[in-house]
């Protein structure tokens, strides 16, 4: 099949020769043909040497690379990429394990499929496209999922209305590509939770905090725990299993609080240790006393674009400063940033500034990141988005 061709300016092929999976619009010298957004295009150096094939798009990232070799992007390609990703999850003992049926199967560039995210919840795959090319390929991807997962797959839910470029005017609607038998109870490390993949944030649950929730469980015994920005309560029920004295979950969304209560009840029916509050995080922190000796701060991304980075860092400083001020002596703070544009260094500096402002003695116990089912392509360091610190506050 003939594809349109993208030719790069002289000396602009270095990043592709280092296998970085993006071609920026400023690197393009000329385009042969008239590709539309989402089309497959071939990328060539100024010397007309083949470099890559990928999805063409409008914006600063002009091509998302699918392969650095000249291959057909056909049904066999999708099956091979998804099978490779699934085998990795089996190696990680996430797939095919009785105590866990929740994991990320495809993590964009980390699985050499830029623009695609697929999370597994029991027998349901929730697919999210972040590029027009992946949107157009959704039915091929669904067929590949069925081929690789077989009878273990009952549903494929496509949820991309909020993640596709809005200027593309695709008229995309979320819905089932396969199945529709909704069983929304999933299992993570032996704990149950309800997943609202139709109306919830992201794909319905924050799978990327699984190992950090497990770590928190080991620190929870006999502590009073505050889970800020709790969403569906993941950290809360891990804390309860860890033996916490009391657990308070706070989120500004009444729907999130309802789901948190449902999840706690699934695992600890009638347990009086848990209370949940639908309230603004900053207001709750400002008015609370020094009641907690374990606090989790896991806010939504404060910065999605570099032009708001400064405001985001101020937000992290303010949030952590209040926690340092209020936490009991000997308390433990789990604090996170999931903003890709906030570097580890920037996040640490914001937290350190907050600690200095409080005047408390603070020590780092752990430096946290995303789990192995959210792999970082070594040639694409931008894929490392989740940063976390576990701090001991005297």
Number of strands: 20
Shape: globular
* Proportion of strand residues: 25-35%
The low-confidence runs, each spanning 5 or more residues with pLDDT under 50, are none
Q: How many domains comprise the coordinates?
A: 3
Strand order of the largest sheet: 16-15-14-17-18-20-19
Oligomeric state of this protein = single chain
Overall pLDDT metric: 93
Query: Main β-sheet: number of strands, strand sense, barrel status?
Result: 7 strands, mixed
CATH topology of the largest domain: Rossmann fold
Order of helices and strands: EHEEEEEHEEEHHEEEEHEHEHEHEHEHEE
CATH architecture of the largest domain: 3-Layer(aba) Sandwich
Strand-helix topology:
Elements: E1 4-8, H1 14-17, E2 22-24, E3 28-32, E4 40-44, E5 50-56, E6 61-67, H2 75-91, E7 102-107, E8 116-121, E9 124-129, H3 132-136, H4 138-149, E10 155-158, E11 175-178, E12 185-188, E13 191-194, H5 210-219, E14 224-228, H6 234-241, E15 246-251, H7 254-267, E16 274-278, H8 281-287, E17 294-297, H9 309-326, E18 331-337, H10 344-358, E19 362-368, E20 387-393
Parallel strand pairs: 1-4, 9-10, 14-15, 14-17, 15-16, 17-18
Antiparallel strand pairs: 1-3, 2-6, 4-5, 5-6, 7-8, 8-9, 10-11, 12-13, 18-20, 19-20
Helix pairs in contact: 2-4, 5-6, 9-10
């Amino acid at each position: 099949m003939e594809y349109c061709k993208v030719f790069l300016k002289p000396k602009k092929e270095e990043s592709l020769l280092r296998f970085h999976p993006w071609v920026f619009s400023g690197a393009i010298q000329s385009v042969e043909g008239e590709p539309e957004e989402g089309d497959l295009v071939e990328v060539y150096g100024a010397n007309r040497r083949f470099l890559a094939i990928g999805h063409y798009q409008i914006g600063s990232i002009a091509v998302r690379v699918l392969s650095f070799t000249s291959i057909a992007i056909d049904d066999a390609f999708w099956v091979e990429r998804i099978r490779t990703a699934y085998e990795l999850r089996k190696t990680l003992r996430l797939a095919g394990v009785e105590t866990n049926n929740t994991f990320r199967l495809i993590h964009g560039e980390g699985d050499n499929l830029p623009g695609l995210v697929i999370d597994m919840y029991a027998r349901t795959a929730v697919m999210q496209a972040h590029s027009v090319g992946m949107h157009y390929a959704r039915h091929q991807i669904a067929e590949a999922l069925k081929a690789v997962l077989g009878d273990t797959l009952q549903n494929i839910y496509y949820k991309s209305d909020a993640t596709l470029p809005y200027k593309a005017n695709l008229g995309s609607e979320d819905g089932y590509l396969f199945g529709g038998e909704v069983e929304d109870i999933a299992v993570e490390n032996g704990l149950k939770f309800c997943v609202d993949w139709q109306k919830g944030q992201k794909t319905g649950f924050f799978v990327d905090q699984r190992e950090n929730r497990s770590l928190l469980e080991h620190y929870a015994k006999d502590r009073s725990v505050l889970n800020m920005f709790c969403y569906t309560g993941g950290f809360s029920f891990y804390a309860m299993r860890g033996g916490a004295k009391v657990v308070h979950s706070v989120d500004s969304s009444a729907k999130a609080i309802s789901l948190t209560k449902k999840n706690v009840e699934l695992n600890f029916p009638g347990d009086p240790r848990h209370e949940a509050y639908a309230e603004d995080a900053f207001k709750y922190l400002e008015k609370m006393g020094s009641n907690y000796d374990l606090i989790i701060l896991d806010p939504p991304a404060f910065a999605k674009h570099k032009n708001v980075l400064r405001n985001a860092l101020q937000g992290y400083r303010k949030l952590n400063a209040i926690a340092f001020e209020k936490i009991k002596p000997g308390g433990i703070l789990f604090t996170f940033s999931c903003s890709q544009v906030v570097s580890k260094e920037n996040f640490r500096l914001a937290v350190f500034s907050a600690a200095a402002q409080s005047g408390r003695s603070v020590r780092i116990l752990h430096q946290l990141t995303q789990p192995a089912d959210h792999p970082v392509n070594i040639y694409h360091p931008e894929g490392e988005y989740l940063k976390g610190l576990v701090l001991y506050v005297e």
